[in-house]
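Check this.
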Amino acid sequence: MSFDDVRFPTAISRGSSGGPERRTEIVVTGSGAEERNSRWACSRRRYNAGFGVKSLDDIHRVVAFFEERRGRLHGFRWKDPLDFKSCAPAAAVTPLDQAIGTGDGAAVKFQLVKRYGSGLRDYVRTVTKPVAGSVRVAVGAQEVTGFSLDALTGVVTLAAAPPAGAAVTAGFFFDVPVRFDTDELRINLTQFAGGDIPDIPIVEIRT
């Protein structure tokens, strides 16, 4: 799958709408009881960037970005204005934010993840597009600097294997890998000094 490691203009995505989507099948039995089954193990984000377009310059930027991606053909990075770091939006990132593994004395590679929930039925989301330079890592609650990051997969490689039982944690900013969910932009230029693009559908992809 083709992916361009560039971010959609954040000034426009900041005004977008959207969030996670799941796929659940519900069958109602003759007695009125329900049988529910989740078809997707992971949620999928959908957004509409049209709400963030405020000027002709914004329209120009969106068209240029859309054309360079060839519509739905190439993926890109998207900053979710409500969910873009390992902690709550108003909190500061720390190396203790998310548990990403436990040392066994041999493993040095750990995948960045973010957990959602209160401990009852947490959803663990794989983070594949961290923001380079933002990742902080701790081993046994002590921050370490000896690691490398693959910013296209979210895999952290430590310089030394953590001892058995040591908690490996991380804090980070991240983007969502997405693509346009249309091959057509309908641009409205009815206003004299402005215009809009009412619908710019964006959908998360797996990379």
User: Anything to note?
Assistant: The mean pLDDT is 94. The CA atoms of residues 94 and 171 lie 5 Å apart. The first strand starts at residue 3 and ends at 7. The helical segments are 10-13, 56-69.
